[in-house]
Design brief:
Blueprint (H helix, E strand, L loop, with lengths): L1 E4 L3 E3 L1 H13 L7 E8 L3 E4 L5 H11 L6 E4 L7 E2 L3 E9 L3 H4 L2 H17 L5 E3 L28 E3 L5 E10 L2 E9 L9 H16 L2 E4 L7 H12 L1 H4 L3
Parallel strand pairs: 1-3, 1-12, 2-3, 4-5
Antiparallel strand pairs: 3-7, 4-6, 7-11, 8-9, 9-10, 10-11
Helix pairs in contact: 1-6, 4-5
Length: 243
């Protein structure tokens, strides 16, 4: 199997989410894994598919009061993610691979372990969150909606000294594969991080994890009409206020 390293692109929130979903559902060579790092054309937030829009708007009022934002509901789960200063990536693993078949917590742990190793290679003091704190008053561990980079979840990436959350992610499994959407909050790591070197190290470790050969690959020939239609759907008020 190969790990296709796709070219860097920047897009609006809806376009980025639509592109990620089509890389899962419509990739021309679905037997190979694919990875992309991308950026945002405007200050953006995304939030998990099952999040209620009222809760999301409450958080945005506190996190970015009065700011004009590009907002989109993700096809994956998870909480509210601030993309204004993050390093965003997507990994798609084909159906039938061991990582696709693994429990969600295990795939989360393994990908984030590769991310930790890549940051530690640049002397960044980062660790995995290895356990949940005791739940309050009988509540389930790590239950309820969250704001990414505010409350860490199990196997998130943390600063070893301050405990600040550095990286989180959300996942979706379909009959086509596993979609892993990840975000690393750059202000929580040293300004000396070489992000090009980080990407190279991270994708090398992901290739090792997947038992794949990493290959720089041209952008796939996705159906532009389908991408445009899905982007329109993801930018619609009906999609954003779905719940």
């Amino acid at each position: 199997m190969q790990l296709h390293l796709l070219p860097f692109r920047a897009g609006g929130a809806a376009e980025n989410m639509a592109t990620d979903f089509l890389l899962l559902q419509r990739y021309p060579d679905a037997t190979h894994a694919r990875f992309r790092h991308y950026d945002w054309r405007a200050p953006a937030f995304t939030f998990g598919f099952s999040q209620k829009i009222a809760y999301v708007r409450e958080q945005l009022a506190a996190l970015a009061p009065g700011e004009r934002l590009d907002l989109c509901r993700r096809p994956t789960g998870g909480g509210v993610v601030d993309h204004r200063e993050d390093w965003t990536y997507t990994l798609v693993v084909p159906r039938g691979h061991a990582l696709y078949d693994a429990r969600a917590t295990e795939s989360y742990r393994l990908v984030h372990a590769a991310l930790v190793e890549s940051l530690r290679a640049q002397d960044q003091p980062v660790i995995l969150k290895e356990r949940c704190e005791p739940p309050a008053e009988g509540a389930a561990c790590e239950a309820g909606p969250t704001v990414c980079f505010v409350r860490p979840e199990l196997y998130d990436v943390l600063h070893e000294t301050t405990g600040a959350k550095i990286a989180g992610a959300a996942q979706k499994r379909t009959k086509h594969g596993l979609l892993f959407q990840g975000s690393l909050w750059k202000p929580t790591v040293a300004a000396t991080v070489d992000w090009d070197l980080f990407k190279s190290d991270f994708t090398t470790r992901l290739a090792t994890l997947l038992h794949a050969k990493a290959i720089e690959t041209p952008w796939p020939d996705l159906n532009e009409d389908e991408l445009s239609g899905l982007t329109d759907q993801y930018s619609s008020s009906e999609w954003i206020a779905y719940r």
